[in-house]
Amino acid sequence: MDEVQDHLEQGLQVVFIGFNPSIRSGEIGHHYANPRNNFWRILHQSGLTPRLYDASEDGELLKLGYGFTNIVSRPTRGAEDITREEYLQGRELLRDKLEHYRPDIACFVGKGVYTEYSRRTKVDWGFQYHSEPVVDGVLEFVAPSSSGLVRMPISDIIGIYRRLHEFLIEE
Questions:
Q1: Distance from C-alpha of 95 to C-alpha of 125, rounded to nearest angstrom
Q2: Checking DSSP bridges between strand 66-70 and strand 105-109, what pairing results, if any?
Q3: What would the pLDDT profile of 78-97 be if each residue is shown by its tens digit?
Q4: Host H or E run for residue 13
């Protein structure tokens, strides 16, 4: 199965970073394409996007200053299918991408994504001000996973993403 293409360029406000693409995303070539994934609804309801986008429009979000990548590029049924070696390689590739593209904010879609990337265990929701960023000058924001399997109430998830939106409009 093909990897889902990153949507990255210089000057982005936020790069959203997931574990890896779902099988559905791999099949159609777009980020957060599983219909049980709430990502697009969360972005809209938090105010990060002016309307509800579809996964097929993921490349359009570059115009809003948002990009997409994953710590591992191989599509799988779940994060539990990612190997230690893939995380090791993915961590290095992700650091290289962030150093090259230098977004203002790296938004990790799930605490596990951030802990795999940073190798840190103390993680709170939101900005990670308690420690130096892995890539100097790139703020790190940790948001809940948008997977439909997450047990946190959707209103709480949207509230955390809304904090990111509020930060962006205050800049």
A1: 21
A2: unpaired
A3: 778 888 899 999 999 999 99
A4: none
